[in-house]
Design a protein that fits this description.
heterodimer; A: flat; B: alpha/beta; 2 domains; five-stranded mixed sheet; 12 helices
Chain lengths: 231, 279
């Protein structure tokens, strides 16, 4: 029992903060980049649209671990840019997440009917004004349910950063089960892995519940995503 | 007033000294007892790590240790992102292409682990059509893939972490594990189900390593440090403390002794480790 409690404490103290920081960083980066990319992909001039399309295709088409290694070892080997491990992880996974998030937002933007844009333009609004006052508020609401999904997947992607030496939850876990194997026996590896799975699950559950609450709060009768999930 | 002045002066001097002690970033795959691992409180210890700490104490630099995955250490030390690699690394020609090694500080052989009930010996385990596990890009993995190339009937499964290879061995997914002798002995001591089937005399030399070309001039510090530790007996004491002893005893010894090292008394630290770990 004391091994379990001590392991949990070590995970929470030494691994969890970095995992949470990285998750928030990735979501924030994806959000800041994803919305502009999505709007440019829908309403931008043609060459910009092509560029955004290419960006999104490239970053959605490469496995996360390859991106991480590219940004970590690739940059340092080829260009001599020595980013700290956390920064290369954030950059690689953040750009990837921005590509995924841009498609979530594009879907939300395009589900606001085109007629609304035309109507806004016909009453004298500029394209930007129409986006700001008509499209964005609706698209934001509609994007929350699929964005919940992105939160869940980004949270767990952070474990890949352990490969380049980011000391997050999974890295801490390997240290714990190494020791426990030698001091308590090999069957304890399973116990430790269940503990870390539990922590990831709790994080996912808490995040999804919070986002579900946000979804409820921002709902407008007649414009909600149809149907309801009991929570 | 005079007192205040003195306090400010003392503070200034302390801060100045702290600022002047160079800190070097050390990379280590800390899943490899007795050379490097983390105790229950997350303190990183092990033969390699204390060796570097002791060198630091002698040569006047601080060390900041980061836990790494084994297969990326050479890249990150080679590129200069990390300053020193201390991870039970055998000096090989391939690795020399990426990093520069210190003088050898340890000589190791490879040991083959098997399940006690399997009845395998070192010959049948490696040539009887069995599957052998090894950590990715280690000397052990190199030996097995060499055997495969020679057409010998053996299969290699590679793992990113050494403990996972041992787990798979115990679970019966593979038939043997090849790894440096001290790590294998540590595993066999901890697990009743497995034993060392035999040792392959490879006489490999372990070296600490730095970026190629040694831009920070660390090799002299490291080599000179190891030589000093061998001369003053601290090296032997660390060997006595870490090799073939119970890990939990070593951890307790380390916790009781580390204060001495923090005070800069390398010899007393190593002596205390050797005594307490073998009590």
């Amino acid at each position: 029992m004391s091994t379990i409690l001590q392991s949990l404490q070590m995970m929470v103290e030494r691994g969890l903060p970095t995992t949470i920081l990285l998750t928030l960083g990735l979501l924030g980066m994806g959000l800041l980049m994803g919305y502009p990319i999505a709007f440019l992909q829908v309403y931008g001039p043609r060459p910009v649209r092509w560029f955004c399309h290419g960006y999104e295709q490239v970053f959605r088409g490469i496995p996360a671990i390859v991106l991480i290694l590219l940004f970590h070892s690739g940059l340092s080997r080829t260009f001599g840019i020595l980013l700290p491990a956390f920064a290369s992880g954030l950059l690689a996974l953040g750009l990837r997440s921005s590509a995924y998030q841009s498609q979530i937002f594009r879907g939300a933007i395009q589900s606001v009917s085109e007629g609304q844009m035309q109507a806004a333009r016909s009453v004298g609004m500029s394209k930007l004004q129409a986006i700001r006052h008509i499209i964005l508020p609706q698209a934001f609401r509609l994007s929350i349910p699929p964005w919940t999904n992105e939160y869940s997947s980004v949270l767990k992607d952070t474990s890949l950063a352990s490969a380049i030496g980011v000391h997050e939850l999974m890295k801490q876990t390997t240290l714990i089960y190494t020791r426990v194997q030698f001091t308590r026996g090999v069957e304890w590896i399973l116990v430790i892995l269940i503990l870390v799975a539990l922590i990831y699950w709790v994080l996912t559950f808490v995040g999804n519940t919070a986002l579900g609450y946000l979804e409820k709060r921002t709902r407008i009768p007649g414009f909600e995503t149809k149907g309801q999930v009991d929570r | 007033m005079k007192k205040a002045f003195l306090i400010v002066l003392a503070l200034g001097l302390t801060l100045g000294m702290v600022a002047y002690a160079e800190t070097y970033k050390v990379a280590s795959d800390t899943t490899w007892p007795p050379f490097e691992w983390a105790d229950a409180e997350g303190n990183l210890l092990g033969f390699d790590l204390d060796l570097v700490r002791c060198i630091g104490a002698l040569q006047g630099f601080d060390v900041e240790i980061t836990s790494y995955d084994w297969d990326i250490i050479f890249d990150d030390v080679g590129s200069g992102r990390m300053d020193i690699g201390a991870s039970g690394a055998t000096i090989t020609a391939d690795r020399e292409l990426k990093v520069d090694f210190s003088n050898p500080y340890w000589t190791s052989d490879q040991a083959v682990l098997v399940r006690v009930d399997s009845g395998l010996n070192i010959i049948t385990a490696l040539a009887g059509g069995y599957t052998v596990g090894a950590q990715l890009e280690t000397t052990g993995a190199g030996i097995i893939s060499g055997l495969v190339d020679e057409g010998i009937d053996v299969e290699l499964t590679e793992y990113t972490l050494y403990p996972l290879a041992v787990l798979d061995l115990i679970n019966g997914n593979i038939d043997a594990v090849i790894q440096d002798e001290p790590a294998s002995v540590a595993s066999a001591t901890a697990e009743e189900a497995i034993q060392v089937a035999g040792v392959i005399k490879t006489n490999e030399n372990f070296g600490l390593f730095v970026a190629e070309g040694d831009p920070k001039g660390l090799l002299t510090l490291l080599n000179d440090g190891v030589a000093q530790l061998k001369a003053n007996g601290a090296y032997n004491d660390l060997v006595t403390a870490y090799m073939g002893t119970d890990l939990q005893k070593v951890e307790a010894a380390w916790k009781a002794s580390i204060g001495l090292l923090n005070d800069g008394d390398v010899v007393a630290f190593a002596a205390s480790m050797a005594t307490l770990a073998n009590e």
